[in-house]
Amino acid sequence: MKYALVTGGSRGIGRAVSIKLAQMGYYVIINFQRNEEEANKTLALIRENGSDGELMKFDVGSKSEIESILGAWVETNKDKVIEVLVNNAGIRKDNLMMMMPDTDWDTVLRTNLDSFFYVTKAILQNMVAKRYGRIVNVVSLSGIKGLPGQVNYSASKAGVIGASKALAQEVGRRGVTVNCVAPGFIKTDMTEAIDPTLYRNIIPMQRFGEAEEVAAIVGFLASKEASYITGEVIHVNGGLHT
Ligand code: NAP
Asked: Are 220 and 201 in contact (CB under 8 A)?
């Protein structure tokens, strides 16, 4: 079987990506932090789509959990190389910078940016050794344009974009691609509190996107067909600022 790891696979974009990868024949390792019930729903959907998977609970913002849980899986499953990694788990804690507690800066940077470094590091060596790998990082329009109230979130996503472009150049000759997908407003729990009608006039497509519309491009970038695309950022935002 071909193995894929999706961080934050229990809900939203991560769930849609997990299903897409299942349809592509991947065994999907579903990472989540708290919501085991939702993670199990994702697993059931993966099975309904003809594949299989497993849950892997760890905090992507914790270096020690990544090493002890993901690291241990890699160590004990030497015959199973994860060839697709989707760094999707992310959070936002919005506030004007002047009012932003230091902890909200730290938590968002740790969860959205440090996670890229430690999760990717745990499995990159095997991809390089196999001379094949697809790394797709879910970033945000906020990391490109910058959005007021999101100094922490914008910094974390811009950081992942810079890191992805650098890593793409390090591992390109080894058959490993590293790309980013930057959603605009997508209908998930993260945007539940935002009224889409308020944005109708500024989004050219006049609606929020669906998680499946993000998963479609993640799936393509994770496929063999995307073999000559690396270091890119693909926007999925209905025409809203690029
Ligand atoms: P969501 O519906 O809030 O789901 C977040 C997912 O991330 C859940 O599976 C959650 O797990 C997991 N997660 C959160 N913190 C984690 C941690 N510390 N360790 C492990 N897993 C963790 O979010 P979403 O809208 O699908 O967002 C997915 C990605 O897209 C994020 O990186 C987000 O920044 C990005 N994005 C979203 C939008 C949008 O409009 N929705 C726009 C731009 C970018 P639990 O279920 O266990 O909590």
From this structure: no
Give the separation between CA 94 and CA 136, rounded to whole angstroms.
25
Catalytic residue numbers?
153
Which pLDDT belongs to residue 198?
A: 87
Q: Is pLDDT above 70 for 139?
A: yes
Q: What is the CATH number of the domain that holds 230?
A: 3.40.50.720
For the stretch 2-33, pLDDT in tens is 999 999 999 999 999 999 999 999 999 999 99
CA-57 nearest atom, ligand 1: 20
Count of domains observed in the chain: 1
Return mean pLDDT, the chain. Answer: 97
To test the pocket of ligand 1, the residue of 20, 188, 194, 233 to mutate (highest count of ligand atoms within 8 Å of its CB) is 188
The boundaries of the domain holding residue 153 are: 2-236
- Which residue among 30, 32, 114, 115 is best mutated to probe the pocket of ligand 1, counting the most ligand atoms within 8 A of its Cβ? 32
* Rounded distance from Cα 15 to ligand 1 centre (Å): 10
Within-domain flag for 241: no
Q: Classify residue 163 as exposed, middle or buried by CB count within 10 Å of its CB (0-12, 13-18, 19+).
A: middle
